Amino acid sequence: MEMRPLDALNKARGKRVIIDLKNQRQYVGTLSAFDIHINIVLEEAEERQDGEVKKKLGTVFIRGDTITIISTQ
Q1: Which of 42, 22, 18, 21 has its CA nearest to residue 32?
Q2: Cα 47 from Cα 5, distance rounded (Å)
């Protein structure tokens, strides 16, 4: 059976993910929730710049239309 994009996200729920945005920002955190628009909720999120933690943010909501890449850590 083929895996669809939402299936891959569902498999990553509860795991650490790296999210790259169109504005060149990168967030790392535990994938808590998402919807069909790929709006994402991350727990224990951190903003990273050049691989280093820039800011610890806690729980964040990221709009799906700003995301370019989602990968598991």
Answers
A1: 42
A2: 24
Contacts of residue 14, defined as CB under 8 A and 6 or more positions apart, other chains included, come to: 30, 31, 32
Specify the DSSP class assigned to residue 35: -
pLDDT of the residue at 28: 97
Residues lower than pLDDT 70 in the chain: 1
CATH code for the domain of 49: 2.30.30.100
DSSP 12-23: HTTSEEEEEETT
d(CA 64, CA 9): 12
Range of the domain at 38: 5-72
How many separate domains does the chain show? 1
